[in-house]
Write a structure and sequence with these properties.
Number of helices: 9
Strand content: 15-25%
Largest sheet: 7 strands, parallel
Shape: globular
Radius of gyration: 18 Å
Distance between the termini: 31 Å
Bound molecules: NADP nicotinamide-adenine-dinucleotide phosphate
Strand order of the largest sheet: 3-2-1-4-5-6-7
C-alpha cells in the first residue's frame, strides 16, 4: 500500500472529490482526518472507510475560518503526532457564481469565489506547512478545474479562482519544497457522475443549447479517449501523488483532462 502510516487531513471531505480522496487514501493505508462544513456527509464517508477496514476520524471545520482550521490541525497533531498530507477539496455552492453574464455580474459576486477559494487553500496549506516544515516532509494538495486554463462562458469568478489556486500551488512549492514539503494540484475533467457537474450545468443549460445528455457526449468527444473521466481515476491519481512514489513531483497542477486541454 502506498500510504501506509501516513496521516492525512482532508477538507471538504463530505463532497464527491473529498470523499473519494478519503476512501482512496484510507484504502492505501493512511489514517484520515475528515473535515467538512457540515458533519453528517463527512460521517457517511468515515463509515465507508471504517467498513473497508480503514481508520477515519471526523470533525466539523469551516475551511474558511482560520481559528477552526488551526484548532483542528493542532488536535490532529495531538492525536497522531504529525500531519503528512493536507488535501483541500472544498467546493463552494454555485448559487450567485454560475449562469450570469460577466457584464451583468455585481463586483462582490464576481470577487466572492476568488476570495473564498484562495482563502481556504491558503489557510489550510499555511497551517499544514507550519507543522510539516519542522519534519522536513509533507504533501499539500488541492483540486482545480479546466476553467483555470481555458475560457468558459457564464462562470463568473470561478475561472480566475481556479487560476489563482494553480498560481498558489506553484508559489507554495517554491517556498516549501526546499524544506521537504511538496505542493501539488490536480485539474480533473468534469466528472458527470458527481452531482457538482449537473448543478454547474443547470444554470448554463439554456445558453449551452444542449441537453444534459448531449452536453455529456460533447464533454466525452473533446477527450482523446472519447469518454468521461471517472471519480475513481481522479482519486487513484491523488493517492499516487500523495505517496512517496511521486517524490519528484512538486509545484505543478496535473492535467487530468484526458487530452481536452493541451499543456
Ligand atoms: N466534480 C467534478 O467533476 C469536478 C471536476 C473538476 C473540478 N472540480 C472542483 O473540485 C472542487 C470539489 O468538487 P466536488 O465535486 O467534490 O464538490 P462537492 O461535492 O460540492 O463538495 C464540496 C465540499 O466542500 C464543502 N465545503 C464548502 N464550503 C466549505 C467550507 N467553508 N468549509 C469546509 N467545507 C466546505 C461542501 O460541504 P457542504 O456541502 O457541507 O457545504 C462539500 O462537502 C470544486 O471546486 C469543483 O469545482 C470538480
Amino acid at each position: 500500500m502506498m500510504l501506509t502510516g501516513k496521516v492525512a487531513v482532508i477538507y471538504g471531505a463530505g463532497g464527491a472529490i473529498g470523499g473519494g480522496v478519503a476512501r482512496a487514501f484510507a484504502s492505501e493505508g493512511a489514517r484520515v482526518f475528515l473535515t467538512g462544513r457540515h458533519l453528517a456527509p463527512v460521517d457517511v464517508v468515515a463509515e465507508d472507510v471504517a467498513a473497508g477496514g480503514g481508520s477515519a476520524e471526523t470533525a466539523e471545520v469551516d475551511a474558511l475560518d482560520e481559528r477552526a482550521v488551526g484548532d483542528h490541525i493542532r488536535s490532529v497533531i495531538d492525536r497522531a503526532g504529525r500531519v503528512d498530507i493536507s488535501f483541500n477539496a472544498v467546493g463552494l455552492p454555485n448559487a450567485g457564481i454560475l449562469g450570469i453574464p460577466l457584464t451583468d455580474l455585481d463586483v462582490e459576486q464576481f470577487s466572492q469565489p476568488i476570495a473564498a477559494y484562495t482563502r481556504s487553500y491558503f489557510l489550510t496549506a499555511r497551517l499544514a506547512a507550519r507543522h510539516m516544515v519542522p519534519n522536513r516532509a509533507g504533501v499539500i494538495m488541492t483540486v482545480t478545474a479546466l476553467h483555470a486554463r481555458t475560457g468558459i462562458p457564464l462562470v463568473g469568478g470561478y475561472g480566475p479562482a481556479m487560476a489563482a489556486k494553480e498560481a498558489l500551488t506553484r508559489d507554495l512549492s517554491a517556498e516549501l519544497a526546499p524544506h521537504g514539503v511538496r505542493v501539488l494540484g490536480i485539474r480533473p475533467q468534469a466528472m458527470p457522475e458527481t452531482p457538482t457537474i449537473k448543478d454547474a450545468f443547470e444554470p448554463r443549460a439554456e445558453a449551452s443549447g444542449a441537453t444534459w445528455e448531449q452536453w455529456q457526449e460533447l464533454l466525452a468527444a473533446r477527450t482523446h479517449g472519447r469518454r468521461l473521466l471517472t471519480l475513481e481515476e481522479t482519486t487513484n491519481l491523488a493517492a499516487f501523488l500523495a505517496s512517496d512514489r511521486a517524490s519528484g513531483m512538486t509545484g505543478t497542477t496535473v492535467n487530468l483532462t484526458m487530452g481536452s486541454l493541451d499543456d
